[in-house]
Amino acid sequence: MRSGDEHGLPREVPAGFGALLRQLRREAGLTQEELADVARVSARAISDLERAVNLTARRETARLLAEALQLTGHQRAVFEALAAGRKPPPITVVPQAGVPGSGFPPRSGLGSGGAAGSGGAAGSGGAAGSGDAEGPDRTGGADRADWADRADRAGRAGRVGGVGAAGGGGSVAAATRTLPRDVASFTGRQGELRLLLEAAAETDRAGVVDVWAIAGMAGVGKTVFAVHAAHRLAPRFPDGQIFLRLHGHSPAQAPVDPADALASLLLTAGVSAQEIPPGLEARTRLWRDRLAGTRMLLVLDDAAGHEQIRPLLPGTGGSLVLITSRRNLTALDDARAISLDTLPPAEAAELLRSLAGRPVIPPDDASVSEITRLCGYLPLAVGMLGRQLYHHPAWTYRRLAADLAAARDRLAFMRVEDLSVAAAFDLSYRDLTPDQARLFRRLSLHPGPEIGPAAAAALDDTDVLTARRQLEDLYDQHLVTEPIQDRYRLHDLIREHAGKLAAEEPATESGAALARLLDYYAQGAAAAGQYFTRRSPLPLPAAQHVGMTTRAEAVAWLEAERLGLHAAARTAAANGQPRTAVVIAAGIHGYLRGHGYWDQALALHQLARNAAADLGDPLAEAGALADAGELRQLAGEYHEAEKTLAEALAICRDLDDASVRAAVLNELGIVQQGRNDRTAAASSHRQAQHLYHQLGDRSGEASALNELGLVQRAKGDYEDSAASHRAALHLYRAARNEFGEASALNRLGQILRSTGDYAAAAACHEQALKLHRDLGNRIGEATALFGLGIVQQATADPEVALASQSKALGLARDLRYPLGQATALAGLGAAQLAGGNPAAAITSYSQALTAHRALGNRGGQVTALNGLGRAYLAIGDRQAATGSFTDALTLSREVGHRSGEAESRQGLGAVQLAAGEYKAAAGSLRLAFDLYAELGVRHGQAEVLIRTGELLLALGDHDEARSSFTEAMAIAAGLDLRAEQASAQAGLRRCASLAREGTTPAS
Question: pLDDT for 829-873, tens place per residue?
């Protein structure tokens, strides 16, 4: 307090009525709200006068304020003169009795801020109208006049509730149970409540001051939660429970000064006004002295910051302090934090039904769910709409949901009386610095769900470090959330509020900010995209905020910004930047393709195609069509893929651009492979290779060769296939294209596996698997695991093969990759059969057959049918086995699948042998052996030789049987085929045994 002159006035009368009012109020130890209560005027009026919003006061207002401040004589004359805008009269009066040096009588009958109520509409965990709602306190706690009477009657009652009264100049009653009322509609927050209750038990044992900072965005229900928790905890703190509102975010009211807050707390605790010392430090010491040895629960509501809180904390153990704030009070030592989020959907629906007074509505009612979703599950918003429904019985949930969904301004719906969600948000906004406020407004321009510091820097035209610091400031004020590190998100309603603020800015500024953001995304897409293309890298524009120098950084950036990039492309196309949309779609195609985000990629390429058409850029349009065709091919939509690529090719024929034409031809060849038109596929790939070679595009040429190798393998040209894949591998490595290198290694492993070189095949698949994992290419990883599993089945423990195929299938399912799923199912069936589980193999092969039929992939159907035949034979069902092998033989001959035909004939020979049809078996096995020999499939030859040895034994030709088993043994040993080696050895032992016995096997 400031000391007075001999007339009881401050020694220096402040200039202006507002300054005088503020000084007199503070010297009386009153908050704006308390003075408003006693004077029976609004707190807004007092705030406007003190802030000089109103330079003078109405005569009646001045009179009420003077009486509330107990001004008389010269004091009152000066006060009322300044209130009216007149010069103060030069009158001398006798000083007032009361607080020494203040010129004012004691205010022991004025009550305290500790008696403040919760204010606003009914709340919950939280609902509308808690300390998060807007407007001054509307309940005001106990009536001040009644409180004064009770204080006077109490006289010198000494300790009340365990807190000592002031000594010396008299005493007043302590009102140490001032919690606002709890609300019946409190909903949820059980985990946080449990945490606080357990913490209170620890406080009991430890004897320490336990401080909890309850933070969250405006309207999330911090005050209601704190009050509800305090009521639950009250029995543990018998010396009192005090609630004090600090007005960190109250309309037209400044945050309570810590010295004023301490004056209120001391008065609440029973200290008379005469004994409250001037100065923050002295009051802090007295407050801590009064709390020493007591067990008090303090609820300090709506704190502005740690500076406001620290002087109010008890100094000795045993007490619990609950602080609510819209800020993260990170500088408050040893305070434990509870951060309240929006309610889960089910709890938000329960709150709405409870406040609407319509509990008969089912919990899963669609309209209730829609209303709470559109409220962003924010308790304040849900609560306000619930109260509206309660007071409008004719309203229906369905109509309110429809109106809310159609509203251009949802926030306009969310108000009750003079309280609104928008006003709650605006109070948080007013606390921001100009730079923070500018970034907050501009965040609403971001079209995606989250933003990182680099994108924010581009948006706000600043550096990344500054943007990160400002985002952290907004996070501390709970205007943004941080779901993962360095990713920030606006709540839907806060975004809408920020958008309304941004709309008030000049359109040129907002437009420039958005343009910078979209440029950032285009630069980032181009920079990251170079790591994920099998063809030549994209041209790399200069990138101001994009600091990617490694593939790992590109993967991390793309995963974080994937949805933001899509939104940016959509916004660019709609805002006159079609080139940006084209660059983004092309840049991230390889990443989306490799990670299975095909639906998103297709939508982007359609957007890019339209944008390219708007630009009048046919090359860009053809590129978008080519990428879309590739994705449709991967999804097994061969007809649509061929149609899309043919359209792209038609555009390219009208242009003099070999690069795009080559890419389209290569993709078209892949689709033709899927449709089993190998002649057309080979032609397309050779044309693409020729064009790429002329362009000097090594990655492109490698891609064409890599695909050509697959066609050659399917036709049975294994030697040419291996040569094509090796050439592709060499070109990819020369171009330092690791994505392509991994693909070529996988393909080479497949052909080496087919020719029986299992050791080399395993090495290729393992290298490919490592590269694909390093690249984050999950499709490639699944393909490599499938190939490795086939090798492991032949050369290692079947359980190892089973694990590889199971992982491949899991990846393909995660990616929703139908061809990969069908292929892996067939591989899984093979591993199950090798592991002695033919029943499981039948299930897997049947599912693979269904999947390949759905895709129209006849080559895959051949593989599945042959597998089914082997599995049926293993369980002794010769009829089913014959049917499967016959269907496989017919189909393989139709599509020219020569290795499949060999497997079918081998299988039929095995069935015929088991049925004793030796002549037919001999013919089938001979045809199978010749096909395998022609193809160079050594492991197939070994299998046929084993079956032939068994046939010869059955016919009694021991010597020829021994020769057949011996030849099979040599091939199997050279290939390290363990199962075949074991079968050949068993055949040789049987030959020896029969030779010793001189017997012939029964026919």
Answer: 999 998 899 999 999 999 999 999 988 888 899 999 999 999 999
Cα 697 from Cα 660, distance rounded (Å):
12
SS3 at position 416:
strand
Q: Are 942 and 977 in contact (CB under 8 A)?
A: yes
- Do 332 and 372 belong together in one domain? no
The count of residues in the chain is: 1003
The tokens for 892 are: 């393989």
> At how many degrees (to 10) do helices 638-653 and 618-634 cross?
160
Count structural domains, the chain: 4
For 364, other C-beta atoms within 10 Å of its C-beta total 10
| Percent of the chain with pLDDT strictly greater than 90 | 37
Joined together, the tokens standing for residue 247 give 């007005």
Amino acid symbol at 283: R
Model pTM greater than 0.90? Answer: no
pLDDT for res 161? 36
Closest alpha carbon to 897 in 713, 671, 714, 709: 714
Residue (of 920, 919, 972, 917) closest to 945 by Cα position: 972
166 and 270 assigned to the same domain:
yes
C-alpha pair distances (Å), 504 with each of 407, 408, 511: 20, 16, 13
Determine contact, residues 646/653, Cβ cutoff 8 Å: no
Query: What range does the domain containing 60 cover?
Result: 17-102
Query: How far is residue 639's CA from residue 196's CA, in Å, rounded to a whole number?
Result: 62
The residue with tokens 């390949």 is: 852
Q: Does residue 985 sit within a domain?
A: yes
Q: Within this chain, do residues 209 and 254 fall inside the same structural domain, yes or no?
A: yes
Please state the separation of Cα 35 from the chain's center in Å.
48
Contact 599, 635 (CB under 8 A): no
Q: Are strands 336-339 and 481-484 parallel, antiparallel or unpaired?
A: unpaired
Q: Dihedral of the CA atoms 835, 840, 846, 848 (nearest 10)?
A: -60
For residue range 501-540, what is the model confidence (pLDDT) as tens digits?
998 889 999 999 999 999 999 999 988 888 887 554 444 4
Cβ(513)–Cβ(440) under 8 Å? no
Q: What is the 3-state secondary structure (H, E, C) of 312-381?
A: HCCCCCCCEEEEEECCCCCCCCCCEEEECCCCCHHHHHHHHHHHHCCCCCCCCCHHHHHHHHHCCCCHHH
What is each CA distance from 996 to 37, 149, 194, 949, 990, in whole angstroms?
Answer: 118, 123, 83, 18, 10
Question: Is the pLDDT reported for residue 30 higher than 50?
Answer: yes
